[in-house]
Amino acid sequence: MTRATPAEDACTNALPTAALGGPVSHAVSRVARLHRIAAGKVLKGVDLYPGQELLMMHLWDRGAVRQTELIRALELDPSTVTKMLQRLEQTGHVRRRPDPADRRAVLVEATDESCALHTAVENAWGSLEEHTLAGLDPAERTELVRLLAKVEENLCRETEDCPDRRGAASG
Amino acid sequence: MTRATPAEDACTNALPTAALGGPVSHAVSRVARLHRIAAGKVLKGVDLYPGQELLMMHLWDRGAVRQTELIRALELDPSTVTKMLQRLEQTGHVRRRPDPADRRAVLVEATDESCALHTAVENAWGSLEEHTLAGLDPAERTELVRLLAKVEENLCRETEDCPDRRGAASG
DNA sequence: ACCCATTCATTGGCCGACCAAGGTAAAGTT
DNA sequence: AACTTTACCTTGGTCGGCCAATGAATGGGT
């Protein structure tokens, strides 16, 4: 009866093999899922689905950009971005127009109405962050960020999904 | 030139607002996504999609169970599990039969062929975990697990998605 | 000028995951 | 026994994500 991690204990008090064989992997999945749900709730008030807010934030930051830049910034699949934009366009958050300088490219920008959400979204993210980190003191927060960055580095490396990795890693 | 976190620096060397307003939230999304991709690659060899392996592991652990137990153990939406099982059934990893003791319930179990994958999947998870944690010393790993558990607790609490939360939390 | 490789974006198909709504069967109430 | 609530699962729809394949325009090489 080691009463190990609280989360598993709550359910069946028998740790799934998954948790034994890969505690961090397991934790990452679970945290990500819960975080996504929490984000969904917070974003419901601003008529956005989780994931879309990052795209909008980038637009609010940088104005009219072409899709490629969004793909690179968000590190998503092109098709994902296309579909997100189609939906965001339909909900009126985004406008697309052909790039006059390059006839195969498309320029994307946030609509004026969407800019009204800007503050709300940032507040939402702020409270989400605070909620996520409740009970962690500053040192713990810093450490968590540092460790997550390291993990991201690891996953990024072999995944080879980060296109432009010049060895800037250091402690 | 502060050369802050390596990951952002690689892309545009301008931190998105999202990273400023919620560094951990941002990191969690990114790590989760990369982790999922990595899992997908590792699982490709065993004919499973990321997410399915957890379900299978539970089945291998516990034998024939009813769907409700899977839902509780994996903490997923019922409909999600239903659809996963339909696909797993079609690919021959899983078998379903009505529960004789309860005519609305269904018993699920892993097929014999799927059991051949058992070891492969655990190895896959092991290597995924190792890949994720490469370069972190034991103390860092422990700390990461601890912090993630704390975050999970936080997110779990308000999300109220963990059904059976008796306060078993402690260091 | 021509051809070929690259880049930009889209489509279609798939999976995990959610919610909402529905149908059936088992428990609980009166 | 009849009624109501609860539990179990399914269906249909939506979104974020991926991959593979496609079409259109740009750009480099010869």
Care to describe what's here?
Two copies of one chain form a homodimer. Chain A is mainly alpha-helical and 171 residues long. Chain A has a domain at 24-125: Winged helix-like DNA-binding domain superfamily/Winged helix DNA-binding domain (Arc Repressor Mutant, subunit A, Orthogonal Bundle), CATH 1.10.10.10. Helix content of chain A is 62%, strand content 7%. In chain A, strands 1-3-2 form a three-stranded antiparallel sheet. In chain A, a hairpin with a 7-residue loop joins strand 2 and strand 3 (106-110). The longest helix of chain A is centred in the N-terminal third of the chain and has 22 residues, at 23-44. The first copy, chain A, is globular, with a radius of gyration of 19 Å. Chains A and B meet through helix 1, helix 2, helix 3, helix 4 and helix 8 of A and helix 1, helix 2, helix 3, helix 4 and helix 8 of B. Chains A, B: It comes from Streptomyces globisporus.
List keywords for this structure.
three-stranded antiparallel beta sheet; disordered N terminus; Arc Repressor Mutant, subunit A; homodimer; DNA-binding; 3 strands; disordered C terminus; mainly alpha; 171 residues
